[in-house]
Every structure is written in structure tokens, then in C-alpha cells.
């Protein structure tokens, strides 16, 4: 039987691209109810019309609002915490707003889940949480720790995380920006020709998010194995396929808070990381391994000695990038 059958599920930030795809993935699992919690009234109305499913219930609210969050979490079995400020430059400029939403809001989700005896709560994090050099990554790293450590608090709720790189087609992905520049301008901006990033379609990542909720014992960080590519190669494929070969690439230089490469599993995490065919599971430190045995993962501990980063795994070639972009619908302009 489906883990989600007859369950009441809460998705914070549920009207975003991640939330919509997660909702689409969960509905066939026959949940009792999916509660969509977000700040955007218009987005909720639009989502109501597009899904047209009586099992969806919408709540206008902010994750900073502890009282509203506690109220909305009553009777909930599973929480997916997706709400966040995610644009790096915005977070760098509006520091306290990012802290309030991404850190204080995460703490509020934990407290609401514990107070209402939620079974599982899953937090969605980012590769920028690994050895962070910008505020967004720092808030994600702290929120991961909040969720992991929450398993040591009194209460029945088990907390876990999913950490992912760039998910194509979701808010914050650079690919729609590149497509817009190619279609509307005679130049496209790339920060550095050596920059690499992880890229994956939304469906496999959401699939692991759903699996993480079903599997989680408490304190794990689930990490999908994601393809990586050089940004310059990605851009050249898009220029070629979108039929604007005269466009110029301008190299603007790396921006504050950016890295040349991103990392999904750091070298220091490898000693407590299990590796399965499609994903990693980073186990928590000893204070939780004494509480949960994680036996399903211990036999799969990784033998890697090098971090899992976008700069040190095989990069996608032009045909592979084209295939990925075609699946995501970003080459539909080509004739």
C-alpha cells in the first residue's frame, strides 16, 4: 500500500514549481488531503483552477507566522517544507528577510510539527548549503542542521532533508533566463567559462523527495545523483538549437557569493554517506545513530574518497544536454 494513502499532507511554499510538481506526484497516491500553504493568494487561485481536485485545500500564510502555521498543521501526517527565499542576490541584499524566512521559518515548521504530532517532516535544501559562501547557502546549511537536530527533541516527528542542485524548470533555474536572452537579445551573459553546475529534470528529484518521506528514519539527508555540465557548453547548445547563432557570449566575471563548481556531498560527509544507484544518503552524527539504526543504509556506505561535486564528475556532452533540454521543453522554439 502507498505510504501516502489516506494521509493528510502539508506543503509549505506549495504554489511554487516544486510544490506543484510534488502535488501532481502525490495525488495518484490517494492521500486524504493535501494542504497548500503559501503567501500568494493569486497563485493559490490559479492552482485551484488548474488542478481542480477536491483533495486540495489552500491556506494563505507565511512560515514566519508561528500561530498560523501551528493552526494549519493540526491533523497533518506529513510535512514537506519547501518555502524559502532562494535567489542568491536577493538574499545577499535583504539579509534579515532571508534569515527570517529561511531560518526562523524553518524553526517554526519544526515546532508546529512537534506540537501537532506530525509523523514525518522533510526539508528541501540546496547544493549551496555545502561549504556555503553566500547567505542563501548559509541559511540552507543552518536549516538542514535545525531539521536534523530536531530528531533529538521530545516528540514523535521524524525529520529528514533532501539536498539537490539545479532543477530545470523550477523557479531560480538559470535556463529560462538564458532562453529569454537568446530569443530577445543579441548577447547572453555568462559569469565564467569554467563554471559548472548540476542539472536535472524536476520529475526524478521529486520522485526522490517522495521516496525520502517514505524511507526516513530521522536525520538523513537524501541527495540525488544529478548530471553536471559546463555552463558555457549548455549556453552554446541553447544558442545553436534556438536558431540565433549570431548572438555573442559576454563573460561578466564571477559574482559575489558564487562558486565555480557546486558540491552535493562534501569530503567530510563521505565517512557517513551511503551510496545507492540513484542517490546518496548522508547519515547523521552519533547523537542520532544511537537512536535510529539505519540498517538499510549501513551496508551501502560509499567508497568514494573525493567529494561529489559538479567539477569532478563526468560532464554532459552536447547531445546529452540537448536531450535534457528537449525533455524539459526548452528547445521548443527550434524549427
Care to describe what's here?
The termini are far apart. The radius of gyration is 20 Å and the shape is globular. It contains twelve helices and 16 strands. The chain has a domain at 8-165 and 199-225 and 264-309: NAD(P)-binding Rossmann-like Domain (Rossmann fold, 3-Layer(aba) Sandwich). The model has no long low-confidence stretch (mean pLDDT 92). It is α/β, with parallel strands linked by helices. The strands form four sheets. The protein has a nine-stranded mixed beta sheet, with helices on both faces.
- What percentage of amino acids are in beta strands? 15-25%
Mean pLDDT: 92
Uncertain segments: none
Helical content band: 25-40%
Give the CATH class of the domain at 8-165 and 199-225 and 264-309. Answer: Alpha Beta
Principal-axis shape: globular
Strand arrangement in the largest pleated sheet = 3-2-1-4-5-6-10-15-14
Quick overview of this protein structure:
The chain has 335 residues and is of the alpha/beta class. The protein has helices spanning 17-26, 41-51, 66-73, 88-93, 95-115, 135-149, 175-184, 202-215, 231-241, 286-289, 295-298, 318-328, and strands at 8-12, 33-38, 56-60, 78-81, 120-126, 158-164, 166-168, 187-190, 196-201, 221-224, 228-230, 248-251, 263-265, 273-275, 279-282, 308-309. The longest helix is centred in the N-terminal third of the chain and has 21 residues, at 95-115.
Notable characteristics:
16 strands; 335 residues; single chain; alpha/beta; nine-stranded mixed β-sheet; Rossmann fold; three-stranded mixed β-sheet
Amino acid at each position: 500500500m502507498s505510504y501516502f494513502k489516506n494521509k493528510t499532507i502539508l506543503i509549505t511554499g506549495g504554489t511554487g514549481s516544486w510544490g506543484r510538481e510534488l502535488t501532481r506526484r502525490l495525488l495518484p497516491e490517494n492521500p486524504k488531503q493535501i494542504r497548500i500553504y503559501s503567501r500568494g493568494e493569486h497563485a493559490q487561485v490559479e492552482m485551484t483552477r488548474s488542478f481542480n481536485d477536491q483533495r486540495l485545500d489552500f491556506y494563505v500564510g507565511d512560515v514566519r507566522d508561528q500561530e498560523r502555521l501551528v493552526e494549519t498543521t493540526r491533523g497533518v501526517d506529513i510535512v514537506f517544507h519547501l518555502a524559502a527565499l532562494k535567489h542568491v542576490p536577493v538574499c545577499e541584499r535583504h539579509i534579515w528577510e532571508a534569515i527570517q524566512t529561511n531560518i526562523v521559518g524553518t524553526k517554526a515548521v519544526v515546532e508546529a510539527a512537534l506540537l501537532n504530532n506530525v509523523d514525518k517532516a522533510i526539508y528541501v535544501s540546496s547544493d549551496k548549503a555545502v561549504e556555503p559562501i553566500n547567505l542563501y547557502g548559509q541559511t540552507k546549511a543552518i536549516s538542514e542542521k535545525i531539521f536534523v537536530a530536531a530528531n533529538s527533541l521530545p516528540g514523535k516527528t521524524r525529520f529528514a532533508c533532501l539536498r539537490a542542485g539545479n532543477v530545470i524548470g523550477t523557479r531560480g533555474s538559470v535556463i529560462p533566463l538564458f532562453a529569454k536572452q537568446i530569443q530577445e537579445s543579441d548577447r547572453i551573459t555568462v559569469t565564467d567559462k569554467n563554471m559548472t553546475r548540476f542539472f536535472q529534470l524536476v520529475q526524478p528529484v521529486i520522485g526522490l523527495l517522495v521516496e525520502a518521506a517514505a524511507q526516513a528514519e530521522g536525520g538523513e539527508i537524501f541527495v540525488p545523483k544529478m548530471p553536471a555540465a559546463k555552463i558555457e557548453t549548455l549556453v552554446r547548445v541553447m544558442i545553436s538549437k534556438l536558431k540565433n547563432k549570431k548572438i555573442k557570449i559576454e563573460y561578466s566575471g564571477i559574482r559575489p557569493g558564487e562558486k565555480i563548481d557546486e558540491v552535493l556531498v562534501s569530503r567530510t560527509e563521505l565517512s557517513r554517506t551511503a551510496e545507492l544507484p540513484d542517490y546518496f544518503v548522508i547519515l547523521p552524527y552519533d547523537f542520532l545513530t544511537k537512536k535510529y539504526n539505519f540498517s538499510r543504509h549501513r551496508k551501502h556506505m560509499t567508497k568514494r574518497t573525493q567529494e561529489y561535486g559538479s567539477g569532478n564528475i563526468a560532464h554532459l556532452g552536447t547531445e546529452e544536454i540537448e536531450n535534457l533540454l528537449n525533455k524539459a521543453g526548452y528547445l521548443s522554439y527550434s524549427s
